[in-house]
Amino acid sequence: MELDVLPLRSILFVAWLAGCSSAAAPAPAPSAPASPPSAPPESASVATESPPVPPAPTASMSPAEPAPEPSAPASGPPPPLPTGTTVLHIGDSMAGALGIALNEELKKAGVQGVLRFKTASFIPTWAWSQDLPILLARHNPDLVLITLGANEVAIKDPEIRAKTVQKLVKRFEGRPCVWIAPPLWAGDTGLLPVIKRNAAPCRYMDTNALIQGMPRVSDKIHPTPAARKDWAKVVVEWLARERKPDGDKPFALRPE
Prior knowledge:
Elements: H1 8-24, E1 86-91, H2 93-108, E2 112-117, H3 123-127, H4 131-139, E3 143-147, H5 162-170, E4 177-180, H6 191-198, E5 203-205, H7 207-210, H8 225-242
Parallel strand pairs: 1-2, 1-3, 3-4, 4-5
Helix pairs in contact: 2-8, 5-6
């Protein structure tokens, strides 16, 4: 059987067509790029927040220098009482119990003591007394002492004495003054604190804080003669200690 043989020119033509068809075919589209990976999630920290770092110390933040130690009080006894002066002492029977021995102590210090007391007197008695201005004018005291309240320590409403105490101390016309608390023989209803709060500008001398267990006479109220002398010495020592030697008045006293 004879096979048809294509001429060489036909073979070459067919090969040329196949090459053109291959060249004209579009190149395959590149595959889409993969999606970019998402950002990694923020790590959830379970640790507590670190404490802030304190700023470097500055001059204003540097620790203060330690305060100097307070100087020790001057040793030795206080200056003596001012000689040639006059002290007026007014009050009730407790003023009488103290006053005689006190005048003896004042005399030793070169101070004149004037005692005026009324046994059954009260704070209002002296607050409205017509005798007080006469005593002040006659003796012109450098210091006034008041010993009142013993007859009123059981008063039911001690606050009613507040204004009366204020009225009495105003009558001294700016003179230095000291309210000497009576020595209690039993509890009180609060009168002495009322006196203390309202006696300014007078100083308040708390007898019951300075002397405890004071011996009493048969009435169980007034001090014994020996206790009165001890009380008088305590008063003089207190006055010497609390007085301002360089004050504008001989018996100027230190503030509370």
